[in-house]
Amino acid sequence: MKITYSFSSNNDYSNIKMKALSSSKIVIYYKQSSAGGHVSTAIIGEINGEVVSFGAPVDMTGAVKSFSYGSLAVINSSKFIIDYCDSNGSKNSVIVGKVDGTTITKGSAYPYTSRMNYHNSATALNDSKFVLAYSTIGPNNGFCIVGDINDTTVSWGDNYTFLSGQAAFYNSIQALDENTFALAFQDLGNSYGTTVIGEVNGTDISYGDFQVIINASVVDISLSKIKIKLFSNQ
Question: Angle 42-44-50 (CA atoms, 0-180°, nearest 5)?
Answer without folding.
Answer: 135
